[in-house]
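Posting here for the record, re: manganese (II) ion.
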Amino acid sequence: MEALKNYKFWFCTGSQDLYGDECLAHVAEHSKIIVEHLNQSGLLPFEVVWKPTLITNELIRKTFNEANADDECAGVITWMHTFSPAKSWILGLQEYRKSLLHFHTQFNEEIPYDSIDMDFMNENQSAHGDREYGHIVSRMGIERKVICGFWKDEEVIREIASWMRTAIGVLESSHIRVVRVADNMRNVAVTEGDKVEAQIKFGWEIDAYPVNEIAKYVEDVAAGDISALTDEYYSKYRMIYDGRDEAEFRKHVEVQAGIEIGFEKFLKEKNYQAIVTHFGDLGSLKQLPGLAIQRLMEKGYGFGAEGDWKTAAMVRLMKLMTTGIKDAKGTTFFEDYTYNLVKGKEGILQAHMLEVCPTIAGDDISIKVLPLSMGNREDPARLVFTAKEGTGVATSLVDLGNRFRLIINEVDVKKAEKPMPKLPVATAFWTPRPSLKIGAESWILCGGAHHTAFSYDLTTEQMIDWADAMGIESVVIGNDTTIQGLKHELRWNSVYYR
Ligand code: MN
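Prediction output follows.
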């Protein structure tokens, strides 16, 4: 996946000039020490940049506007070391457009019982100053994250790290461009949506092209390039011939290599980072893009099947939010297919016709060539594997007509009870929280789709914070969900989000 910009987060400390120069020197020194510690912790995915103490309206306004203009600044972290009269922050906050973290911390961990005097108290009063600042941000109705805790506490630093990834999602959302080489599947409701509203809310550009324009890129791929990429597939994956002639098998795989190269060239040339296809609208393509789409997802592209541009953009977004995570377990497009309703073994089999991202693979990845039961093309080659075990979030963005709703379900991916040797697609088997029964009932009450954007590497909190920053409704289905509670929440939300 292409690297993100060299993003940085600015650390801005608030104070005022009533305390005298010595105190202000301490404020600056303390915030420098905190920034240095955060950067050296090894826990943050992005660098924190120290900024001079903010004490006047003019400087606050100037700093926030510089943060807006700096392409590498992904957000601002604010902390009131002492008291900073909050009216000073109004103009700067009004003009600020990126993510805001209010880090409610204090330089000293413990009250120095034996030596504390009025000077010490005046100098170390974030309990006081952060409340004044928090008031104005709340009064102005500005979305921000508040994290409280000691700055050396690893758990607190991890919370900052997690927020940074949400901030990247907020910033990068407006750079997502989705190409549709097929329309929404006829008569299907849940994959539809208002593309203009999506651009207003999320910044997504969603464009359509005739499928044969991208098919031309595939036809123009040089035979040598196809052969080289096919060799790479053969070295990386296990071929399962299932009695097919090996030379004929390779020809099918080569078609997908051509699609991968042609599609990627098209996407790069025209600056798209996500794509939707449709098995019923393939133009001159010889196969439904299967293996090719799986490989593109692995490279970081978003994907949605049957014209589902909302899920395609979400897959791209969630992949961006997880960029650079060490030992990441993967992010993919998925579809709810088949239930296991046996008591004590309940779960949902996740798959798609072909298109599941191999980043989630928990075992060997094989290539199979088999007919599809839908569409009218050659037997497509596809990567086959089963997913890792672990907890993740399954999300579905739906358009309710007057608003978007992001449904977030925590799920536990398990090893399937038995192998499924006759199922020639990538799968995961998961149990939604709090249980299949309440999870599925809740999902349906929320109007969630059969398509999801799934990740092991993001948390419910990150997805809620992203939705809040976008100004859309989010509904969580998790351990605390009850049907009655959820129904109340949906009713209340319908009044709030109009
Ligand atoms: Mn589908």
